[in-house]
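Help needed: design a sequence for this.
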């Protein structure tokens, strides 16, 4: 994420990173103002905008499986952006110690994990059968011969919120 949540990966309704020249071209050609452009980028783009169907990856994947070309394109665009982002971070860090999937899609979508790791196999990633059966627990989904582990880790936002609340409360005097 950059200055706003619009930057970065393709999301459910957000465009992710786009060429700034595209934005000015769309405004000029379509005759839309900045507020309309912001609405398009924030609420009508991403999986929803590309698929023309839904912001829910499960629905987009089902439609793609049924032969819907725009839904398949939405998945391909999302995977492409995810893989190029991981590749850039790997290059900037000088390598990769582990690939960790988390959050809704990372925790629950075996096809996304498969699509990413297949495209990044040259980094030493390989998935095993556990990728297809991950439930609601942290898991190592690496396959035999993987030189770099692939993990699924629950996000646990609730624990982070509790930790931050505890830190705040520790600094607050208790009433006597």
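Sure. Designed sequence:
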């Amino acid at each position: 994420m950059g200055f706003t949540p619009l930057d970065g990966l393709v999301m459910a309704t957000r465009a992710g990173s786009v060429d700034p020249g595209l934005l000015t071209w769309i405004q000029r050609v379509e005759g839309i103002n900045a507020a309309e452009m912001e609405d398009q980028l924030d609420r009508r783009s991403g999986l929803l905008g590309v698929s023309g169907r839904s912001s829910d990856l499960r629905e987009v994947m089902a439609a793609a499986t049924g032969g819907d070309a725009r839904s398949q394109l939405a998945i391909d665009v999302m995977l492409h952006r995810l893989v190029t982002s991981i590749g850039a971070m790997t290059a900037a860090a000088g390598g990769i110690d582990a690939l960790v999937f988390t959050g809704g899609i990372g925790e629950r979508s075996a096809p996304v994990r498969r699509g990413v790791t297949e495209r990044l196999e040259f980094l030493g990633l390989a998935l095993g059968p556990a990728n297809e059966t991950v439930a609601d627990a942290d898991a190592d989904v690496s396959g035999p011969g993987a030189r770099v582990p692939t993990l699924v880790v629950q996000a646990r936002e609730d624990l982070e919120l509790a930790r931050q609340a505890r830190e705040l409360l520790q600094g607050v005097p208790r009433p006597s």
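The chain has two domains: 1-94, 96-176.
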